[in-house]
Amino acid sequence: MAQLWAAADLRAELVELCELLLERTNHLVAPLTWPFLAAGEPAPPVPLGLHGRYSRAEVFAAFGLLNDARTFPGREGVFFDETTRCDDYAISPQEFHWESQSLTREASATGQRYIHHRERGSRVLLFVREENKRGGVTLPFLCLGFADYVSHEGERPMAIRWRLQRAIPGAFYPELAVAV
Description:
Elements: H1 2-6, H2 8-24, E1 30-31, E2 49-50, E3 53-54, H3 56-62, E4 89-90, E5 95-99, H4 109-115, E6 124-128, E7 133-134, E8 137-138, E9 141-153, E10 159-164, H5 173-176
């Protein structure tokens, strides 16, 4: 840092680069606001930001679920500590439609876990992709933040409506409002 600080020309160039990158940014990543914390209880040390983009491995690693002792836990998109992408889309900037795994029934343990997550002290943190792949490259997940169960229709799969704590940024909403 001392050498960088001493290099005035390089420092000035870095400032210009940061200004340019800020102009090209269509959203800013904010800290996650953890729901259901008791007074004075610290938020878990999860290094993810609201509306940030992350690979599946980064999400698992952030929650301590991927390390030397525990290899990659699989391909499912919902992980309880399960999504096969079917018909997931933004209903509004504040609500998201998500389909469960194809065999999930309302009365199943999994269906009940989704419906009653708040009463059971469980938090739902929603990660979605605008597209699975673009140009043959797997895209990262967008962290939409914490969500609460609103309602559901049907089963096998259950079509669940989630209310997001924070609205989807305008730059993402058009992409997410189309079934992905």
